[in-house]
Inverse folding.
């Protein structure tokens, strides 16, 4: 079958098949990318359609955050715990290097602390004081970052990540297992407290896919496999047809077998004659004495 497949017409057709397979494979990858982006857009649209709600209704204190909560618009009213404000270092805002100003907000309705990223300051700039009095914070809910991958000792009031587990040790009491990127405050911050740049929340990422587009991707890959199968089946069919028509390697014929047998017999006869000095005929009928016609043997 390999010899059949190596014939020029099948090699040319194989080249065309490979082009088609590559094209179908690319279309499958494109549909998979569309499936991921479509799911991402579904999540963003759902977040935009969901109205802002009190943080207590979306995520009560001591409750684990899930993907359903990420990016939700929430509001919380309380007082900033300025004594526990920290800078989250090594952050960027565009091309600026600096830190996030992270301040816990003691929520009036629960007494629990909600970590709030109030804004961004450039590197080397001290954290501006938190507003005093009661404020209402509007922002986007985000999961904690956890401990840093590589710990680097920091000065007091500076941390590497938004790690709420370590925040519990510093703050005490109940906390919300998420933090908020503040988009606005009521009343607006004034004076030194206003000297922070708003930090836009990161884009919400979805781990899922749009199953309809994912199914289209699988279909393209099935088509690619089917094209290869059709080529292989056509080569196999021609190979079988050639075998049936005698295109395969022929075995020994009957004439060749007979000639081989006669040659062996003659060789044996010659050998016997040479050994005895008598020429023995090859056929037994040749040993019968001939009798003249019409006469008798005496």
């Amino acid at each position: 079958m390999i010899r059949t497949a190596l014939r020029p017409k099948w090699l040319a057709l194989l080249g065309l098949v490979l082009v088609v397979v590559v094209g179908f494979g690319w279309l499958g990858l494109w549909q998979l990318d569309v499936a991921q982006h479509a799911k991402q857009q579904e999540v963003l649209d759902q977040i935009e359609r969901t109205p802002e709600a009190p943080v207590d209704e979306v995520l009560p204190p001591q409750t684990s955050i899930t993907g359903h909560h990420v990016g939700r618009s929430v509001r919380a009213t309380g007082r900033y715990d300025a004594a526990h404000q920290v800078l989250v270092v090594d952050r960027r805002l565009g091309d600026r290097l600096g830190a996030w100003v992270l301040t816990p907000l003691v929520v009036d309705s629960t007494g629990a602390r909600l970590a709030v990223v109030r804004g961004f300051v450039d590197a080397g700039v001290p954290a501006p004081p938190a507003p005093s009095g009661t404020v209402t914070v509007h922002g986007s809910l985000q999961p904690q970052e956890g401990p840093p991958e590589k710990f680097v000792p920091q000065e007091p009031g500076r941390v590497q990540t938004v790690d709420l587990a370590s925040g519990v040790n510093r703050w005490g009491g109940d906390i919300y297992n998420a933090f908020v990127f503040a988009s606005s405050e009521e009343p607006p911050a004034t004076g030194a407290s206003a000297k922070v740049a708003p930090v836009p929340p990161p884009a919400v990422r979805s781990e899922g896919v749009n199953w309809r587009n994912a199914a289209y991707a699988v279909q393209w890959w099935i088509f690619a496999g089917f094209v290869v199968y059709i080529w292989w089946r056509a080569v196999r069919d021609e190979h079988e047809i050639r075998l049936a028509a005698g295109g395969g390697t022929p075995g020994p014929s009957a004439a060749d077998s007979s000639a081989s047998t006669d040659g062996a017999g003659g060789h044996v006869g010659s050998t016997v004659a040479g050994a005895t000095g008598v020429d023995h005929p090859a056929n037994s009928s040749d040993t019968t004495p001939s009798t003249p016609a019409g006469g008798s043997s005496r």
In short: The longest strand covers residues 96-107. Confidence is low (pLDDT under 50) at residues 249-298. The radius of gyration is 46 Å. The first helix runs from residue 2 to 5.
